[in-house]
Amino acid sequence: MSSSSRYDPVAKSLHWLMAALIIGLWGVGLGMEELPKGDLRSQIIGLHKALGVVVLALVVVRLAWRATHSAPTLPATMPAWEQLGAKLGHLALYGLMIAIPAAGILMSQSAGRDVNVFGWILPTLVEKSDDLKEVFGEAHETLAWLLAVVLVVHVVAALRHHFMLKDDVLSRMLPRRG
Fold first, then answer.
1. d(Cα 80, Cα 78) in Å, to the nearest integer?
2. What's the whole-model pTM score?
3. What is the pLDDT of residues 66-84, one digit of tens each?
4. Is the dihedral of CA 175, 75, 14, 4 positive or negative?
């Protein structure tokens, strides 16, 4: 593991790809249940499920990459409590990026529905159960809202570092210019 002052291109690509997917999934998740029943709604829900599984797979890739490629060190001027907050925030993000798709998969399966990932059906992990469907559905929704809060804190913290503290915390995750 080597440490540098910036994230490497793979880490940056995974970060921004997952950010786009998660924001899109969150937005679609807000409105898809309100759509009238029919083919469009079924297709959107199917895409939401498939991309949720993609996010779960990308988290595994990202964690494997992170295990072999260390993150840049935090600025020496950052207080210990803030460094702890950054570490706990990242831990929360990773945990939620695993828990939300897992709850979604289990919600679908406990409702008796397959999870089709672009033609590949996930193995069924739970039997049909209205009670479990409710539990996993509530977990999926509640954790998605929690993720939204954690993401807002993450973005505000990054912007604070960039515009107020004027350190390199945000710029080390941005693509290089010219």
1. 7
2. 0.94
3. 999 999 999 999 999 999 9
4. positive
* Contact indicator for 122, 114 with CB cutoff of 8 Å: yes
Beta-strand pair 120-121/116-117: antiparallel
Cβ burial of 109 (10 Å; 0-12, 13-18, 19+) is: buried
With a cut of 90, say whether residue 4 has pLDDT above it.
no
The full set of domain ranges for the chain reads: 9-173
Q: Are 133 and 110 in contact (CB under 8 A)?
A: yes
pLDDT at 12 over 70: yes
- Owner of token pair 């498939």: 50
Q: Residues near 11 by Cβ (< 8 Å), separated by ≥ 6?
A: 62, 65, 66, 69, 71, 173
CATH homologous superfamily, domain 9-173: Transmembrane di-heme cytochromes, Chain C (1.20.950.20)
The torsion region of residue 118 among left (phi > 0), alpha (psi -120 to 50) and beta comes to left
